[in-house]
Amino acid sequence: MSNPTSTDTPAQTVAFLGLGVMGDPMAGHLARAGHRVTVYNRTASKAHDWVRRNGGHSAATPREAAAGADFVFSCVGNDDDLRSVTLGPDGAFAGMQPGAVFIDHTTTSADVARELGLAARERGLFFLDAPVSGGQAGAQNGLLTVMCGGDVQAFERAQPVIGAFARAVTRLGDNGAGQLCKMVNQIALAGLIQSLAEAIAFGERAGLDLHKVLQVIGKGAAQSWQMDNRGPTMIEGRYDFGFAVDLMRKDFGLCLNEARQNGARLPVLALVDQFYADVQAAGGGRLDTSSLLTRLRDQNG
Q1: Rounded to an integer, what distance in angstroms lies between the CA atom of residue 293 and that of residue 152?
Q2: Which of 23, 47, 72, 76 is the most buried (most CB within 10 A)?
Q3: Are 259 and 247 contacting, i.e. CB atoms less than 8 angstroms apart?
Q4: DSSP secondary structure string for all residues of 65-106
Q5: Among this protein's residues, is 182 annotated catalytic?
């Protein structure tokens, strides 16, 4: 593992595909690090707006954006979105030069990472599956944690460039390993968020000052990033911090599907997935994942 910095990293020609809440600031960090950036977004107006704010260029297709790039980054929605920007006559793979590296920051299945890794190798390219943790704030502040799967040499070439928006970049193994690591991350979060929600709801029913309670227990064994950063806002009923319930359920679906294939048992994650479905049914699909508390407050009346 490393904590890379973009300082003294030679300027590279890069493309970035997908300018959502994560991709837009990530691409911005690449530009500010001195790299020559061309962007593509399915809604072209977002690409034009990014260029207005950051400089660089926009392209009409992934293939055009990738032409001549040393590194091509993507951060899109799901497996099918990733295939749409990589494969086919207008896909990035068709425009990339031999030896170029494609780095995908989407959270996808491990299967599609392996599929695209093979497709890249057949074209003389390299593919890194590199999902991230840190959410919208991490992307904006350049402090993401990046979990990579793929060729060692390609990873070593890409690592300092990824460092423009990451505080830690780690290779876990071959293609698919990055996505599997991200699944472990989401599995670990599932019970943690639900437990924090239950603790706050219990404390409220008990008539405690929850801000004081979190200050106290946050100095002991119960402390977590989730408690420090989301506990106070959960108490206040604020759930507008980036990573949405809809996206978490997508990720949980990937975890559950992988578990069916490898035989792992995920009873807690499966249960919390149902709780998130309750939040969605109540209209909270775009709320932050800490909104699990809403269903407990509703039940408690």
Answers
A1: 42
A2: 72
A3: no
A4: HHTT-SEEEE--SSHHHHHHHHSSTTSHHHHPPTT-EEEE-S
A5: yes
Kindly name the residue from 46, 182, 219, 250 that is annotated as catalytic: 182
- Give the Cα separation of 248 and 290 in Å (integer): 11
168 and 162 Cβ atoms separated by less than 8 Å: no
pLDDT tens digit at each of 301 positions of the chain: 444 444 568 999 999 999 999 999 999 999 999 999 999 999 999 999 999 999 999 999 999 999 999 999 999 999 999 999 999 999 999 999 999 999 999 999 999 999 999 999 999 999 999 999 998 889 999 999 999 999 999 999 999 999 999 999 999 999 999 999 999 999 999 999 999 999 999 999 999 999 999 999 999 999 999 999 999 999 999 999 878 999 999 999 999 999 999 999 999 999 999 999 999 999 999 999 999 999 999 765 5
| Angle (deg, nearest 10), helices 23-32 and 44-54 | 30
Question: Helical H runs in 132-266?
Answer: 135-141, 152-162, 177-205, 210-217, 225-235, 245-262
pTM over 0.90: yes
Identify residue 175 by its one-letter amino acid code. Answer: N
- Report the relative pairing of strands 36-40 and 126-129 from DSSP bridges: unpaired
Residue with tokens 């928006």: 165
